[in-house]
Give the backbone structure.
Amino acid sequence: MEEDVIEVWRKFIFEGPRFNGLVPTKRDWDEVVNRHEKNGGLPFVRRALLFSAKCAREEAGMPRFGFTPEYEGSVTLGEWADAQDIRLDGK
């Protein structure tokens, strides 16, 4: 019998070149990744996890992450996700 696995997820807001908005589910995150990886270059997930910083303010209680200058917080998306036990790297 297969065991159901419940995946932990917390909503967040992400701003990137091909997506700007709420990421309410893992499936939505996967779509964000797919949109960005079509550009080639450094794999989007690696770049997002390492370099997108948290904005100093939250929106509706949700953290905001992105690459633009307003996102200059001390926590990256990857660090935040690790602290929340959220897997964003597809593993």
User: Anything to note?
Assistant: The helical segments are 26-37, 44-51, 77-83. The longest helix spans residues 26-37.
